[in-house]
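Project channel, design review

CF: Before we commit to the Nonlabens marinus S1-08 constructs, I'd like one complete example in the thread so the newer folks can see what an input/output pair looks like. Taking Transcriptional regulator, AraC family.
RD: sounds good, go ahead.
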Amino acid sequence: MKFISDPNFSHSLFKDVVRIDYQSDMPPYLINDYGYTYLMFCYGDFEAVDHKGNLVPVPQKLVKGTGDYFSITAHKDNIWITLEMPNHVLYNITGIPSNRSRNVLYDLESYVDPTVLDSLYDALRNKESISGIIETVDEHLSHYYSKWGRPLKSTPIVEYIYQEKGLITLADLQVQFPYSERTLERMFNKEVGCSPYRFICLVRFNYVIREIENNPEVLISDLTAQYNYYDHSHFEKDFQKFLGQSVSNYKNEFNPLLTQALARKFVKADDA
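CF: and here is what came back for Transcriptional regulator, AraC family:
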């Protein structure tokens, strides 16, 4: 696979942009939720299977928000372009309560002029730099940005959870923001797509995974202590919740370094 990205990327709406060129057939690989909304442009035939094992159609131009893990199978010469946006953008695009949008791959043609989308889709195919991709997307979609990026009540709360790396409680949210637990629950289900507690756990889990990816030699005891897990079994429960399997069974050809690090630092420690 050929990855194209820019670590110094900055944009008023998009948080990150990645292009993947598949240079050979790929076995199914697991993708977990990161709590963001994504615009995706897919070239070639992709197979997606949701967390329940159901086949999910993959539109050529799609938008998706928070949800559960799923697996993707890609083939040689396929192209996948992903633009990451803040979580609340999905609700602004669709107008559909986000708890009804979990695990839904929305066809972008339902929300954007199909003629504009077709032009964008054709123009993006041969853009092999992040600057070229974003210039093309801006040219076609910039007049949507003010509506899509409009902050919601949940927006500063989500930003705070990320800022704190998920190392907070529901009680902390009620101290920082003028909402009851019940109001937070309703707000997050409508605008985010899950409960505030699940979102906090999701953010913390993803920071742990990033730590493992960036430092494969990290000690499990240090990592669980740093991220306020009670013990290894507590982390295992989150792993099962967000990736659908145990640490010992995890295998992802898409991210072999993470697989190897988990096998070395977690599985063998249990066997010792």
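RD: helpful, thanks. The chain is about 40% helix and 15% strand.
CF: Confidence is low (pLDDT under 50) at residues 268-272.
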